[in-house]
Design a protein that fits this description.
415 residues; mainly alpha; 55% helix; binds fe (ii) ion
Length: 415
């Protein structure tokens, strides 16, 4: 089914402003709604956050107050949308429970995108970080059982396995190794252009969530896990952000943001199983169509460009949808668990020169591996319960990661 938001009749921007009652929606249910409803809410929260912040940056880079008023009106609407989406989280879902959803989003969104992009460098970046967020999910799941007696499988459902991948201790790399080559919008497929921005906003949401809330975790052990994983999310945001074409103008980027919001709300609408949440996606799609047309007008007015010069075909590419990716993930683990980043590419650790920045950075940041929080959290779980927490359908694809009584700290890290 084709959908082109440029062909839709937009409502007025003023009519997008919602009253307080609308900003207090009915939440999904923590353990009864589909895990992917939580995941969709986190994705759209991150998308709105990106829109709001992009809007602020744009307005700080222009002196034209007519333009700044136009941006202010759209931005107010984005901010309201973000508040509305925040309200979809149930009151009884706590910091760590939501975190499980953040990492499930990172896993299943990344795996979906990796299977649909055309650019092999973009795919390599997705596959690379996929294994890291997959491992984060496992670390937080161990914290969840240790601190709350709760089982992460009740939150992620049967969609996502929970087991180690490239261990988090191996994710700490030199900042130079997060900078990749950007795509070129004129050559990239419509799906790839959307994918790099979508995943950047999603990882940025995770980075911000851990930045702001990690310090509120109820004990020291958990706080340290958040600190450590937050630093890895910074790497992910740097990596993905570096893939976006940096040559687009502010107006072109603004149009792209609104187009992606339309595309994602339409995707969520088609994917959603929770009727009340589905209504929210439908309403916000209507608002985004208004934003998109306003952004197209600004592009025309200030740069004398038509939207077609930025988005040649307005029809949405294949929609984003959430489904289980277990076999795909197992395969990536099997083939690339030992990879690390090496400047613009990725390489097997065995091929990395001894004086590589990776080893220098690792030696700087890890003085004693028994003090590294992501390792400690699993080790303490093993000490207390006799084994780690994991949910595996069959033996682990990597033999040295199959032992539930030992937390491996050398895969992807030691030659
Ligand atoms: Fe928005
Ligand atoms: Fe993560
Ligand atoms: Fe991540
Ligand atoms: Fe928007």
């Amino acid at each position: 089914m084709k959908f082109n938001p440029f062909e839709e009749k937009p409502k007025s921007l003023e009519s997008c402003i919602m009253d307080w009652k609308k900003l207090s929606p009915k939440s999904y249910k923590k353990l009864e709604s589909s895990p992917y409803t939580r995941v969709r809410c986190i994705l759209m929260n991150g998308t709105e956050y990106e829109s709001v912040w992009f809007g602020h940056q744009f307005h700080r880079h222009t002196s034209d107050n007519d333009l700044r008023r136009s941006l202010a009106l759209i931005r107010r609407s984005e901010q309201q949308q973000q508040k509305l989406i925040s309200g979809l989280k149930p009151l009884d879902e706590n910091l760590l429970e939501t975190t499980i959803g953040y990492e499930q989003l990172a896993v299943d969104l990344t795996a979906f995108l990796a299977q649909h992009v055309s650019d092999k460098h973009v795919k390599a970046a997705l596959d690379f970080a996929l294994l890291e967020d997959f491992d984060h999910l496992y670390r937080y799941a161990n914290l969840l059982e240790s601190d709350m007696g709760a089982k992460a499988e009740d939150y992620v459902g049967d969609y996502t396995e929970i087991m180690p991948a490239r261990p988090t201790i191996a994710h700490h790399r030199h900042p130079f190794d997060s900078v990749k080559k950007p795509i070129k919008n004129k050559d990239a497929t419509p799906f790839d252009k959307c994918a790099v921005s979508i995943i950047t906003a999603a990882e940025q949401q995770t980075m911000n969530y851990y930045m702001n809330l990690g310090g509120f975790y109820k004990n020291q052990k958990g706080r340290e896990v958040y600190t450590e994983i937050a630093m890895v999310e910074e790497q992910h945001v740097s990596q993905y952000g570096s893939l976006i074409d940096p040559t687009a103008s502010w107006f072109e980027m603004s149009l792209m943001h609104e187009y992606i919001e339309c595309y994602l709300y339409y995707s969520m609408l088609c994917d959603e199983s929770e009727p009340s949440v589905k209504k929210v996606w439908e309403m916000l799609l209507g608002q985004e169509i208004a934003h998109l047309h306003a952004a197209a007008k600004n592009l025309e007015k200030y740069e004398k460009k038509e939207w077609r010069e930025v988005i040649p075909n307005g029809d949405f590419p294949e929609l984003v949808s959430f489904k289980s990716n277990k076999d795909y993930i197992r395969n990536i683990i099997k083939n690339t668990v030992n990879f690390t980043a090496d400047r613009e590419s990725y390489t097997d650790l065995k091929k990395l020169p001894k004086d590589a920045d990776f080893f220098k950075y690792q030696n700087k940041i890890i003085k004693n591996e028994n003090e590294v929080a992501s390792h400690k959290v699993v080790q303490e779980h093993i000490d207390r319960f006799g084994e780690d927490y994991r949910v595996q359908d069959k033996p682990h694809p990597i033999k040295s990661l199959d032992n539930r009584k030992v937390d491996n700290t050398s895969v992807g890290r030691k030659q």
